[in-house]
Amino acid sequence: MKKDNWIIKAFLMTFFIALIFNSVSNVITNKCNNILILIIVNIFFIFIGIIFDIIGTAVLTANESTFHSMSSRKIKGSKEGVYLIKNSSRIASICNDVIGDICGIVSGSVSAIIGIYISNKLNISVIITTLVISSIVSSLTVGGKAIGKKIAIKNSDKIIFLVAKFMNKFKIKIG
Description:
Layout: H1 6-31, H2 35-61, H3 64-72, H4 78-86, H5 88-122, H6 126-154, H7 156-169
Helix pairs in contact: 1-5, 2-5, 2-6, 2-7, 3-4, 4-7, 5-6
């Protein structure tokens, strides 16, 4: 019986990606007194979460035979596309669960900092401000992912081919 170390790999991957994302957001939020930059950082993390959710959904619905056909014609990125689809459950888990969840947590932390910053500047309740900001961020995240899922399902082969070409161009290997 083959031993699967996926749980350990997912744990370590999550730990290090979260460490990097949180470090970046902490450096920016601690050094920044500009609300606009904080909002841009938050939108960036929301956007990254949505993009990876799109990729995770697309890989589950893409058609493997399309990429085998491309591979037989020696189209760059087709082998990476086949690999992505053959490992779709693992790739979807990385994209949706690992990166998507980390982005959600980081954007939540940044939204709390934005709420505190706004409440201090305007001298209003921290609780109300952070609730409103967190609700806006949650709505943008969930709404963006809902729209993204629809796009991913309709355009799965195109999306996976873009990811596969990117992987091929930058020599990115997974697994």
